[in-house]
Amino acid sequence: MYASLKESGLGAGDWAVFPGGGGGTGIQGVQLACAMGIRPVVVDTGESRRSLSLSLGAEYFVDFMTEADPVKKVLQVTNGGAHGVFVSAVQAYPASLDYLGSRIGGVVMCVGLPPKGRYHIDADPTQLCLKNQSIRGTLSSSRKDIAATLDFAKRGKIHLEPVVVGVSKFNEAVQRLKKGQVAGYAACMSERRFSELPEFVHDGVIYNAQPPMTSQDYGRMIDGIVGKLENFRLDLEMLVVDDRCSTDLDGMVSARFRLSYDSPNKKLGQDRVVFYEHVFFRFQGGKIAEIWPLIAWPET
């Protein structure tokens, strides 16, 4: 989100609208915008997202479910239109240009990637020309952008307040995230209820291209790793779900986890060991059939 905010050209005092800003990506943008002096407006729905957005810097929250005309309300609070619209919720693309209103030089920044062939922006070239408005996309950040974002976090300008769920609620959490029913991020706490793994993991599950194993063997393998760690915690920081999973429960899910546990070397001044892991899951019939852990590195 930092790269999108930077490339938009918005400055202190400008209005930024975040459709879906109460979600994980959007709420990061709200906090960064606030730290940069930009005035955030969140368009989303639900009391939990309202509370989270306003507590983390949004000046206004427009509930698109209860507001008769969300666009009209946004134009009203921004005195004619936003200087920038940052779309992380792909369902908001069709209405994104409307939030610019009559704002000369307004820009729509495309952040979320919609499924192919869905959620287009219907742009009127005359409007873009006469109002000098534009539509831009951002896909990745440079190392400099990442360093700048981490600096904001180090200075306490970015906060994560995840919704915590147990591993047994993982599938439910995935569906809630897809439906926009989670405010901010979701954190998945390991309950170590390995006896319930057959409900979620196929017998014959393939882990990291190794020979198939039973769900019980997979549970014993995981327990052998985390069972030795004091106060082990697993936080789900990012989740990307194959669109097919919402209908037939077959498809791919990729996740970025933050894992931490009490350091065995506290005498060295390190209280917690923290590392990250990117994992791909292939679901078949609503259960995990294959797992690929890709990257893990320590936090420094």
Which terms would index this structure?
about 300 residues; alpha/beta; Rossmann fold; Nuclear Transport Factor 2, Chain: A; 2 domains; 6-stranded parallel beta sheet; 5-stranded mixed beta sheet; about 25% helix; elongated; Alcohol dehydrogenase-like C-terminal domain-containing protein
Characterise this structure.
The protein has about 300 residues and is an alpha/beta fold. It has 2 domains: about 160 residues, NAD(P)-binding Rossmann-like Domain (Rossmann fold), CATH 3.40.50; about 130 residues, Nuclear Transport Factor 2, Chain: A, CATH 3.10.450.50. It is built from 8 helices and 13 strands. The strands form 3 sheets. It has a 6-stranded parallel sheet, sandwiched between helices. The two termini are about 20 Å apart. The mean pLDDT is about 80.
Task: Give the structure's gist in a few sentences.
The protein has 300 residues and is an alpha/beta fold.
Strand order of the largest sheet: 3-2-1-4-5-6
Strand count, sense and closure of the main sheet? 6 strands, parallel
Q: Determine the number of helices (DSSP H or I, runs of at least 4 residues).
A: 8
Distance between the termini: 22 Å
Helix/strand-derived category reads alpha/beta
Our Rg estimate from Cα atoms comes to 21 Å
User: What overall form do the CA principal axes indicate?
Assistant: elongated
User: What are the secondary-structure elements, in order, as H or E?
Assistant: HEHEHEHEEHEHEHEEHEEEE
CATH architecture of the largest domain: 3-Layer(aba) Sandwich
Q: Summarize the amount of helix as a percent range.
A: 25-40%
Unreliable spans are none
CATH class of the largest domain: Alpha Beta
Could you name the CATH topology of the largest domain? Answer: Rossmann fold
Number of strands: 13
What is the average per-residue confidence, as pLDDT, rounded to a whole number? 82
- Identify the CATH homologous superfamily of the largest domain: NAD(P)-binding Rossmann-like Domain
Beta fraction: 25-35%
Q: Structurally, how many domains make up the residues?
A: 2
Organism: Fonsecaea nubica
Keywords: Metal-binding, Oxidoreductase, Zinc
Domain Alcohol dehydrogenase-like C-terminal: 24-154
InterPro entries: ADH-like_C, NAD(P)-bd_dom_sf, NTF2-like_dom_sf
